[in-house]
Design brief:
Keywords: ATP-binding, Nucleotide-binding, Transport. GO terms for molecular function: ATP binding. This is ATP-binding cassette domain-containing protein. This protein is of the alpha/beta class. It folds into 2 domains: 175 residues, P-loop containing nucleotide triphosphate hydrolases (Rossmann fold, 3-Layer(aba) Sandwich), CATH 3.40.50.300; 68 residues, no CATH class. Strand 9 and strand 10 form a beta hairpin. Helix 5 packs across helix 6.
Length: 259
């Protein structure tokens, strides 16, 4: 199949669904000649986990940052909850953002705040009307959901890499998002901890009915979490399918991810 044919809308297991995320003809260039996205099209249905694979610099993180308005694309359309986020005012965009959780590679915790304060700060930023008792209960519940209720008074510097990831995830979950964007959720973790994080992603999907985009280089994580996988190459979607389909793809470059 030629490159242009492969760069089509991501297939869906149920075409009749209205996608919860839909990206059409997305382009982004930095500077004069660093083009990272050259017309990407994809969709994510409700309750689906989409994994994005690609070499470093292929535009994976840029794409999900465009979804939440952290980066502005040069061209294209991004629909979230059937709203084109690129046409929204800041106030309208913020209403969309409160339904989206974003787990950064580092966990992005505030080092000067305790675990309790990190989570409470995020919750208050989204729901200013909550009482202190409600905030405290929500913080405890979020931490218990990731198995770290006992870490509530620790500082980020006291946490292992795996614990920081879990706390970052708890901070994401505390706003009860409908969509979660994971940017390398298992990077820098040992094999056992990586598997625990992958299992947690699946548990969250099933318990909270979230839809997710997961960027990863960790093929064990991809195999465990993906309903569907797309592979980015040279700014476009080079291949897509289930883990099992892509593992057997005739394209040697695609199969190299699975070796």
């Amino acid at each position: 199949m030629i490159e242009e044919e492969k760069n089509t809308e991501t297939k869906s297991k149920n075409k009749k669904q209205t996608p919860i995320i839909e990206i059409r003809d997305l382009h982004k260039t930095f500077g004069k000649d660093n083009t990272v996205l050259k017309g990407v099209n994809l969709m994510v249905n409700k309750g689906e986990d989409l994994v994005i694979l690609g070499r470093s610099g292929s535009g994976k993180s840029v794409m999900i940052k465009c979804i939440v308005g952290l980066i502005e694309p040069d061209k294209g359309e991004i629909k979230v909850f059937d709203e084109n986020v690129l046409n929204l005012s800041k106030k309208e965009l913020n209403k969309i953002r409160v339904k989206i959780g974003f787990l950064f590679q580092s966990g992005a915790l505030y080092d000067s705040m305790s675990v309790r304060e990190n989570l409470a700060f995020t919750l208050r930023a989204h729901k200013r009307e909550l009482t202190e008792d409600v905030v405290e209960n929500e913080v405890i519940e979020a931490l218990e959901s990731v198995g770290l209720g006992g870490a509530i008074d620790k500082m980020p510097s006291e946490l292992s890499g795996g614990m920081r990831k879990r706390i970052g995830l708890a901070r994401t979950l505390i706003i009860n998002p409908e969509i979660i964007l994971y940017d390398e959720p298992t990077t820098g973790l040992d094999t056992i901890t990586s598997r625990e994080i992958s299992e947690l992603i699946l548990d969250i999907k099933h318990k909270q009915k979230t839809s997710s985009i997961i960027i990863t280089h960790d093929m064990a994580c991809a195999k465990m979490t993906a309903d569907w996988i797309i592979v980015l190459k040279d700014g476009i979607i080079h291949a897509e399918g289930t883990y099992e389909e892509l593992e057997k793809d005739e394209d040697e470059w695609v199969r190299s991810f699975f070796d």
